[in-house]
Write a structure and sequence with these properties.
Belongs to the NmrA-type oxidoreductase family. Isoflavone reductase subfamily. This protein is α/β, with parallel strands linked by helices. The protein contains six helices and 14 strands. The chain is globular.
């Protein structure tokens, strides 16, 4: 049994990973967070971190005998990139951690984009360490397109297809292959990967492989064959 620490485990993909990992008898989970919630969920163990202090984070990881750190931080700009880079440095400096999962959830961003550059800084730091590390590419999150009753910790946004307002704008022809995965299915992949003897630096997981055009048709059928208006391809 090893201790797995989830950074950013109170929301988003982190929340799904915590929920999925919690009942697993082979691992103990703790949640790393800037601020401990006033009303924590169930028996979860929360530990507060100062992402600007590498030494204090390293001590926290050692004090809790953390073996694997999973980052579910929202890395999208220089400030959030710095926080995750510091977490990598702390994980490498601590004595007990051996593995690290970088926050590259969702689709892979090009290096010329701000998000791609932010995530890339983490990989640069990881390659300086002796840690075994990986990141997951799962495509688009299906949570964005599910009904309001679907269990999810994700913030609801509309990518390409806005089912609520029945509008769509798709880049390209709409026939390019796309992958979609529900966050709780991504979490199952992650939990299963914890037991792998060796990690690749990039692991793929997806629940559905399709195209935007096919997905649009399925969306229209799901809402009682209502036509999604203002449908247009953008180039």
């Amino acid at each position: 049994m090893v201790v797995v620490a989830i950074a950013g485990g109170t929301r988003g993909i982190g929340g799904a990973i915590v929920d999925t990992l919690r009942p697993n008898p082979r691992h103990t989970v703790i949640i790393l967070t800037r601020k401990i919630p006033d009303t924590p969920r169930g028996s979860d163990t929360f530990v507060s971190l100062d992402y600007s202090d590498v030494d204090s984070m390293a001590k926290v990881l050692d004090d809790n005998k953390v073996h694997t750190v999973i980052s579910a931080l929202r890395v999208f700009n220089p400030a959030s990139s710095k926080a995750e880079s510091n977490l990598v440095k702390a994980t490498a400096k601590a004595k007990t951690p051996k593995r690290f999962v970088a926050s590259a959830w969702g689709v892979e961003y090009a290096d010329i984009t701000s998000i791609g550059q932010a995530r890339g800084r983490t990989l640069v730091e990881l390659r300086k360490t002796d840690l075994e590390w990986t990141r997951f590419d799962n495509g688009f999150f299906l949570d964005y397109y599910g009904p309001p009753t679907l269990k999810s910790y994700m913030q609801r946004v509309a990518w390409a297809i806005d089912i609520v307002h029945k509008k769509a704008g798709i880049l390209g022809t709409g026939n390019e292959p796309m992958t979609f995965t529900y966050t709780f299915d991504v979490a199952k992949f992650v939990v299963a990967a914890l037991d792998l003897p060796k990690w690749e630096e990039l692991m793929y997981c997806y629940g559905e492989k399709t195209t935007w055009n096919k997905f649009l048709k399925q969306a229209e059928e799901a809402i009682c064959k209502t036509k999604i208006q203002d449908y247009q391809f953008q180039s």
